[in-house]
């Protein structure tokens, strides 16, 4: 197989393992929907749960996982906690996913 030249050195296996773990966290339709929503602003758990059509406790579990991976951050404002995107590359990832999986009817 011919080698292709690239400007970037290949990632080490440890880094690829970390990348795989992060991608596993994204590999759920509800979490992808949360990313889509939060790319447009900050929202409370209740707002996110309603948009995703799931219970608030389930939304909280998904949000905690995404926070542990560094994708989301939260900020308390009085009695409310708002979530927002912490990882700037999520928009690029979602653009790639959306362009790949848009249906013909959605174009």
Automatic annotation (TrEMBL):
Task: List the PANTHER family.
Answer: TRANSCRIPTIONAL REGULATOR, ARSR FAMILY (PTHR33154), TRANSCRIPTIONAL REPRESSOR SDPR (PTHR33154:SF33)
Query: Mind telling me what this protein is named?
Result: HTH-type transcriptional regulator NmtR
- Note the Gene3D superfamilies from the entry: Winged helix-like DNA-binding domain superfamily/Winged helix DNA-binding domain
**What InterPro entries does the entry give?**
ArsR-like_HTH, HTH_ArsR_DNA-bd_dom, HTH_MetalResp_TranReg, WH-like_DNA-bd_sf, WH_DNA-bd_sf
Q: Which CDD domains match?
A: HTH_ARSR
**Every HTH arsR-type domain range:** 11-105
Please provide the record's keywords in A-Z order. Answer: DNA-binding, Transcription, Transcription regulation
Residues making up the signal peptide according to the UniProt record: none
GO MF terms here are:
DNA binding; DNA-binding transcription factor activity
